[in-house]
From TrEMBL:
Domain of life of the source: Bacteria
InterPro entries, alphabetized: AAA+_ATPase, ABC_transporter-like_ATP-bd, ABC_transporter-like_CS, ABC_transporter_ATP-binding, P-loop_NTPase
UniProt keyword terms in alphabetical order: ATP-binding, Nucleotide-binding, Transport
Classification via CDD domains: ABC_DR_subfamily_A (cd03230)
Domain ABC transporter: 2-220
Gene Ontology MF term list: ATP binding; ATP hydrolysis activity
Keyword Transport attached: yes
Organism: Aliicoccus persicus
Protein's name according to its UniProt entry: ABC-2 type transport system ATP-binding protein
Family in the record: Belongs to the ABC transporter superfamily.
Amino acid sequence: MLKVDNVSFSYRTKKVLDNVSIEIEDGEIIGLVGENGAGKTTFLNILATLLKPRKGTITYNDMKYKSKKSAIRKQIGYVPQDIALWEDLTVMENMLFFEKLSWVKKSEKELKDILLDMQLDRFDSKVKELSGGMKRKLNLAISLIHDPSLLLLDEPTVGIDLKSKIEINDILDYMSEEENMTVIYTSHDMDEITQLCDRTIVFGQDPFYRELLEREGMPIS
Ligand SMILES: Nc1ncnc2c1ncn2[C@@H]1O[C@H](COP(=O)(O)OP(=O)(O)OP(=O)(O)O)[C@@H](O)[C@H]1O
């Protein structure tokens, strides 16, 4: 379980998060929604241990973020908004490179299986030859090499074709259902949020998102 208790965060004098609290069960899919600049990425970065809250506490499976950062990091897969891949290397070479950095070791066959789960079979294509959707799927595949139990994604389906979008959503759904992985992700696509998520957290002051989600019957925390 992930417990976020009264977390606040400011960049210098700019307050971005104000007393955010939520308890998230293993295997839930949580959507972070809200207007541009509302603090969704900041919150994800805090959950990913990349930023420290100014106030409040976070625990993951009874481990405190303050004292067990490296143990918690091993459980986290993080897919930031910007795609971070070696463009001149092939899909498989990218997987092998990131496997070397991973604390969980995987065989080439296991790495291929992760890619195949993503419908990505162009093992020998250079990344620069891939579509945007394929690159996003590869980024996601890399984040799964170390078998995380908590997956954090910043707009994983923005700007990609519908087929890749559906495939990514299917993977996230599968990971939550079958692997009991907790998935927390940001999106501006409200159809996607209402279809995929169990619950949402609304950031920012704009009532638009809250009203829209309430109309759709989507639980808000
Ligand atoms: N490194 C930083 N230094 C100062 N201010 C920042 C920094 N990063 C973000 N901000 C500001 O903090 C606020 C929240 O930003 P954040 O990126 O978390 O919002 P967001 O909800 O993810 O937005 P978007 O939907 O556009 O991705 C914004 O006003 C942003 O300009």
